[in-house]
Amino acid sequence: MKKTYAPNAIIFGILIGILAWLELNPVLGVLAGIVVTVIGWLIIRAFEKLVDKGIDAAGDAIGNAIARNKANKL
Fold first, then answer.
1. Over the range 37-58, which residues count as b (16 or more CB within 10 Å of their CB) and which as e?
2. How many domains does the chain have?
3. Separation of alpha carbons 71 and 74, rounded Å
4. What DSSP designation does 60 have?
5. Cα separation, 9 vs 67, whole angstroms
6. What are phi and psi of 6, to 5 degrees?
7. Is residue 1 part of a domain?
């Protein structure tokens, strides 16, 4: 299992929920907290998946370049 930073969205959701609770009302505070948590989780995971794909592609490209260089030297 890879490390993920998505649980940080829970912290942001709680903080935004508390702010909305204090400034508006408790119902909107709870809704804001849930919405920010879910959307934040999805955005962070999507970004992490894109980064993982990029890293895998870069690793493959480096491996292929090394193999070509070795083949050319022989």
1. beebbeebeeeeeeeeeeeeee
2. 1
3. 5
4. H
5. 42
6. -60, -35
7. no
Instruction: In whole angstroms, give the CA distance from residue 38 to residue 67.
Output: 44
Confirm if 30 and 5 have CB atoms less than 8 A apart. no
Q: What is the domain range of residue 17?
A: 8-73
Q: Is residue 3 part of a domain?
A: no
Is residue 55 a part of any domain in this protein?
yes
Segments in the chain forming alpha helices (H): 8-23, 26-73
pLDDT tens figures, 33-74: 999 999 999 999 999 999 999 999 999 999 999 999 988 887
- Type of residue at 8: N
